[in-house]
Design a protein that fits this description.
Distance between the termini: 28 Å
Order of helices and strands: EEHEHHEEEHEEEHEEEHEEE
Strand order of the largest sheet: 3-10-11-12-15
Structural class: alpha+beta
Strand content: 25-35%
Number of helices: 6
Largest sheet: 5 strands, mixed, barrel
Number of strands: 15
Shape: globular
Radius of gyration: 19 Å
Oligomer: single chain
């Protein structure tokens, strides 16, 4: 986590590498170089006017958004009617660009396991297929409450009953490179950091402090900070226009670059 300074401006950013095998860890030099580049590009940020504009989430911040979606498809939230997706199986809840999968059977990833914490065999579950809600994620208790079958997503701590947890929960990669997605945005926000992100799984309301880079005519023009992005998960899912090809697993929840057609950006 380097700190960059220039003419009184001080910014920091970070980078890291994580893998289940040593051979897949990035070199210290590469991690340091990327962290430094990310910190330097944030120097001398500007404030922007409040507006509605396209928002591009880089993979690191798209992962946070996907974590909120996991909470909404968790069986424990569904049977308690604490999710805006309750009763929505088989219905369109997102754009056709979006496919979301939970798969604990992929070898060597962070959420890979032969069975869940109730001994149920691990499996691949398509949660959203081209925008259609195909499945919730369930342990045996939530499945029984909903009259469904477990998806092998029981997750247990040291004590207490099993809850619902992810295997490898990810957005299926698209075909477009991240720079091509950015080049297609005339004016918008490229989000590189979320601060205090909050999502209400009952109503879908979403807001987060953010920092990143402003896009002008398809190029990353200058850094921005002290802004808030807001929307509703229902509309954000329907407004997913592009999914990047840059899916990378640095945790059990992973996402590529995402372009959301429009969100409210609160600035000056």
């Amino acid at each position: 986590m380097p700190i960059a300074k220039d003419n009184g401006s001080m910014e920091r950013d970070y980078w890291h590498s994580a893998a289940r095998s040593a051979s897949r860890i990035e070199s210290a030099e590469q991690v340091g170089r990327i962290a430094a580049e990310r910190a330097l590009r944030r120097l001398n940020p500007r404030r922007i006017p409040t507006q509605k504009a396209p928002v591009v989430f880089e993979p690191r911040t798209a992962r946070s958004f996907l974590g909120d979606l996991f909470d909404a498809v968790s069986g424990s939230a569904i049977y308690r009617h604490a999710s805006f997706l309750a009763g929505m199986l088989g219905e369109r809840i997102a754009s056709e660009a979006l496919t979301v999968i939970d798969d604990a059977t992929i070898p060597g990833l962070f959420g890979s396991t032969p069975f869940d914490d109730e001994g149920v065999a691990a499996r691949r579950t398509i949660v959203i297929e081209r925008g259609l809600l195909k499945s919730y994620l369930l342990n045996t208790y939530s499945a029984r409450k909903l009259g469904l079958k477990t998806t092998g997503n029981a997750s247990r701590g040291i004590t207490g009953n099993a809850g619902v947890g992810p295997g490898n929960f990810f957005i299926e990669a698209g075909e477009m490179a991240a720079d091509k997605i950015i080049s297609g945005v005339r004016q918008g926000l490229y989000v590189t950091e979320l601060i205090g992100a909050s999502a209400n799984t009952v109503t879908g309301d979403y807001s987060a402090g953010a920092a990143g880079l402003w896009i002008e005519n398809g190029e990353l023009a200058y850094p921005v900070s002290e802004i808030t992005i807001a929307g509703n998960l229902k509309q954000m899912l329907m407004n997913v226009e592009q999914v990047g090809a840059d899916l990378e697993f640095r945790a059990s929840i992973a996402a590529p670059t995402l372009l959301i057609r429009e969100m409210t950006i609160s600035g000056q």
